[in-house]
Structure formats: structure tokens, C-alpha cells
């Protein structure tokens, strides 16, 4: 049996990346080996409640706190704490309820940013890694829309995490938010692939139906085009967010070491650390020994060296991708050259046949001229 899932809202924060600040509630899922945290605002809980009611036909047992029309939680600590406690009771009621309909819905997975089809919540409120039948494509039109809603939620979460990452003040917060955004983008890319495969299957099953409504798994051409456009827009948005994440990482790596926390170790301090050891004067490569300092690493602390290493690895990855594209272009050029050579060989063969035919006619003409003389 999977370990029990403990869910809570231990703290709140104020998001200031937009022109109008708002309160975020930190929803924490605590497991023995890991912790998963998402930040949601009050409107997200309201949307979750509406989605759960729509999908299951019944609202959760615990009510959602009412909206205050006179006060805002940003400027009222008492109201913030009261709402935090009420929202915590709300999510705990969903997890601890004997009826699993709410925590098994796609709206609940999307709210917690859980990957669709790879992580579910069991009836005892625990996380299970049993995969659902979505990995080979979503062939049911209604389920396709549910997965697309999950995809939209993942994209929104990634966008929000990138905004929070840009406003974060410490390197630890930036790293954590970057990891969360990258995970959301990976889940979004996986969902796009599943939706694309599923749409192909739906389109194939809809062929031969003139109206497009001959069965529950058939769609008309117009609806298929509309869903194809939705997938194209989502794919472009994910690619744009991935580009923003890479640019943020590059910009962060370019920050000078003076802005980093902690003391900067000088070359003498690093040399004194290995003084008197066998690694102080290595005759060759020594595992764990000090490496030769360079102009880029001489004045960096541990955090700066780590960021520099990550930057170098990212640059190498980009170089590998660029090399792969170049190789692919060379392959295409080679195929085109081979096709052209094949055509040229055929043309040379035809020319050779024509030359032989003309030569034969010339020989006949010469023989006839010889007979005349």
C-alpha cells in the first residue's frame, strides 16, 4: 500500500509580480520521501470547487469559504489566516473522504499539478504510480477535452512559476521555481504528444462518416480542425515558455559572484585546504583533488562554480542540438544529391542509347555510299 498522503496549507505569501497583488496559499503534499508544493490563489480554489461539482455532480463535503466583498486578504492578516484554515479544511475533506470521486477527478489532479495518467490518488488518500490508459493516446473525444484542460492548467502553472521565479530574490527560490516550471513544461509536452496521437486515432475512426456524428468516438472535420488548432497553439506556447526558462537560466548564470551569498574563497585558501596531502602535488589526474584554476573560476565560490558548470552544460547541450540539426541538413542534402545523381545517370543512359542509334544510322549511310561508288 502506498504511504498515506498528508495535505496541508501551512503558510501564505503575497504575489507582487502583477500590478494588483494577491494572496497565495501554499498547498503542501507531504510524503515520507518527498514533498510536493503548489501555490494557488483563492480563485483557483473556487474554480476547483466548480469543476469538481460539474464533473462529479456533487460538491465536496466541506464548504469553500465565502468571498469577502469588503476586505482583501492582502491587507488583512486576520482574514488571511481565517481563509487559510477554511481552505485547509476543504482540501483535507477531499483527501480524507470515503467517497473517492473528487480526488479521482481530472480537476483535482490538475489543481495539484499532478501528471495526467501517471499519478493518481487512491481511496485512502495516498499517491499511486499506477498508470492510466492514456499513454498511447486519448481516443475518447470527451476524455480528450479533459486532458486538454489538464494541459491548459499545466501551461498556466508553468507561466505563473516563471513569473514567480523572475521575482524571486534568492538563488534557492529561483532554482526551486525553475525546477517546478520545467516539470510543468515536461508534463505539458507529454500531454501534447498524447493528445496528438489521440486526435489522429479519432480522425482515423471518423473517416467514412459523412456527418461526423455516427458514433461517440467520431468527430466532424470542423471539430478536428479546431482541436488541431488548439494543439498547435499549446505547442507554440510551451516552446515559448521553454525559451523563456532557458533565457532566465542564462541570465542568472551571468550574475557576478559579488551578488552571491557566502564568502568567496581565494586561491590561497583553496591551496591551503589541500596542503600536506597527497593531492597537493598530483603527478597525474587525482580523483577528488583540486583542479587547475581558470580565469572563469578563480574568484567564484561553490555556488558560482556550480552555476558556471550548469551554464557550460547548457551551452554544450545547445551545441549538440545545433550539431544534430546540421547533421540532419547534411543528410537531407545527401539524399537530394543521390536523387539528382540517379536522374543524371538515367539521362546519360538515354543519351548513350541515342548516340548508339545515331551511330547505327551513320554506319548504314556509309555502307550505302560505298555501294554507289
From TrEMBL:
Family matches, as SMART domains: PX, t_SNARE
Coiled-coil annotated residue ranges, if any: 224-251
Keyword Transferase part of the UniProt annotation: no
Region (Disordered): 119-142
CDD domains referenced in this protein's UniProt entry, alphabetically: PX_SNARE, SNARE_VAM7
Biased composition (Polar residues): 119-131
Molecular function via GO: phosphatidylinositol binding
Keyword tags: Coiled coil
InterPro entries (alphabetical): PX_dom, PX_dom_sf, T_SNARE_dom
Pfam short name (any one): PX
PX domain segment(s): 3-118
Domain T-SNARE coiled-coil homology residue range list: 310-372
Keyword Zinc carried by entry: no
Name of the protein: t-SNARE coiled-coil homology domain-containing protein
Amino acid at each position: 500500500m502506498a504511504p498515506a498522503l498528508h495535505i496541508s496549507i501551512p503558510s501564505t505569501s503575497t504575489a507582487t509580480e502583477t500590478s494588483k497583488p494577491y494572496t497565495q496559499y501554499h498547498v503542501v503534499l507531504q510524503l515520507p520521501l518527498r514533498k510536493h508544493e503548489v501555490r494557488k490563489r483563492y480563485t483557483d480554489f473556487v474554480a476547483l470547487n466548480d469543476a469538481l461539482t460539474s464533473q462529479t455532480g456533487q460538491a465536496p463535503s466541506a464548504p469553500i469559504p465565502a468571498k469577502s466583498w469588503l476586505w482583501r486578504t492582502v491587507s488583512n492578516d486576520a482574514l488571511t489566516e481565517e481563509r487559510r484554515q477554511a481552505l485547509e479544511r476543504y482540501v483535507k475533506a477531499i483527501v480524507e473522504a470515503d467517497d473517492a470521486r473528487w480526488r479521482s477527478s481530472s480537476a483535482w489532479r490538475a489543481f495539484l499539478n499532478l501528471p495526467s495518467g501517471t499519478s493518481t490518488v487512491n481511496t485512502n488518500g495516498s499517491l499511486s504510480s499506477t498508470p492510466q490508459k492514456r499513454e498511447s493516446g486519448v481516443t475518447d473525444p470527451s476524455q480528450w477535452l479533459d486532458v486538454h484542460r489538464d494541459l491548459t492548467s499545466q501551461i498556466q502553472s508553468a507561466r505563473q512559476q516563471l513569473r514567480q521565479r523572475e521575482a524571486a530574490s534568492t538563488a534557492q527560490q529561483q532554482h526551486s521555481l525553475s525546477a517546478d516550471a520545467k516539470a510543468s513544461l515536461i508534463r505539458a509536452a507529454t500531454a501534447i504528444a498524447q493528445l496528438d496521437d489521440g486526435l489522429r486515432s479519432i480522425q482515423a475512426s471518423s473517416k467514412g462518416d459523412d456527418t461526423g456524428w455516427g458514433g461517440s468516438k467520431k468527430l466532424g472535420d470542423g471539430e478536428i480542425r479546431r482541436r488541431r488548432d488548439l494543439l498547435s497553439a499549446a505547442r507554440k506556447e510551451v516552446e515559448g515558455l521553454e525559451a523563456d526558462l532557458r533565457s532566465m537560466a542564462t541570465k542568472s548564470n551571468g550574475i557576478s559572484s559579488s551578488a552571491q551569498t557566502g564568502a568567496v574563497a581565494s586561491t590561497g585558501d583553496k591551496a591551503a585546504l589541500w596542503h600536506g596531502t597527497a593531492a597537493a602535488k598530483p603527478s597525474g589526474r587525482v580523483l577528488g583533488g583540486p583542479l587547475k584554476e581558470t580565469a572563469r573560476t578563480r574568484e567564484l565560490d561553490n555556488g558560482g562554480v556550480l552555476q558556471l558548470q550548469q551554464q557550460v552544460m547548457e551551452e554544450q547541450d545547445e551545441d549538440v542540438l545545433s550539431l544534430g540539426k546540421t547533421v540532419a541538413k547534411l543528410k537531407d542534402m545527401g539524399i537530394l544529391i543521390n536523387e539528382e545523381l540517379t536522374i543524371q545517370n538515367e539521362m546519360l543512359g538515354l543519351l548513350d542509347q541515342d548516340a548508339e542509334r545515331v551511330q547505327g544510322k551513320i554506319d548504314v549511310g556509309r555502307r550505302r555510299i560505298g555501294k554507289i561508288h
